[in-house]
Amino acid sequence: MTTSNTLVTREGGAVIESATPSVRPAAPTNNVTDLLKQRVDATPQRILFSVPDAAHSSSWRNITASEFARDVNAIAKGLIAEGVQPGDRIAFMGLTSYEWTLVDFAIWTAGAVMVPVYETSSPKQLE
Questions:
Q1: Which pLDDT value is given to residue 82?
Q2: What is the pLDDT of residues 82-112, one digit of tens each?
Q3: pLDDT for the residue 2
Q4: How far, in Å, are 89, 95, 119, 124 from residue 127 at the CA level?
Q5: What does the H/E/C string look like for 8-71?
Q6: Is the CATH number 3.40.50.300 carried by domain 27-126?
């Protein structure tokens, strides 16, 4: 079942109509990590990221879906080996980056939840 709501407003005598997109019911057996698996299954060599190449300061390195998934799984296995359990919350502080995305997906893959912490947070806020 999908639903859609229409909002009609008047602005300066003109009628403006906008509709919210249809909403699908949640699929309780799916989660965000399924998106990565589906992408790898469909197009494993598709480039998902380009990151600065540490070996060559003026160039970029492409990362494919399968490479990203491999690294996500390796980090997730490490988290699980260290005792991370489904539902655990893991605080993570860092700048927005490729590595942030990698760790975020790994935490989800391990079944845990990332609690992002701003690098500008004060010690009191971190408490």
A1: 96
A2: 999 999 999 998 888 999 999 999 999 999 9
A3: 45
A4: 15, 20, 14, 5
A5: EEEECCEEEEEECCCECCCCCCCCHHHHHHHHHHHCCCCEEEEEECCCCCCCEEEEEHHHHHHH
A6: no
Residue 105, SS3? helix
pLDDT digits (tens, 9 = 90+) for 24-35: 666 667 788 999
**H or E element, residue 66:** helix 65-81
Q: Is 24 left (phi over 0), alpha (psi -120 to 50) or beta?
A: beta
Q: What does the alpha-carbon distance between residue 60 and residue 72 come to, in Å, rounded to a whole number?
A: 20
User: Where in the chain are the domains?
Assistant: 27-126
In this structure, what are the phi and psi dihedrals at residue 87, rounded to the nearest 5 degrees?
Answer: 95, -15
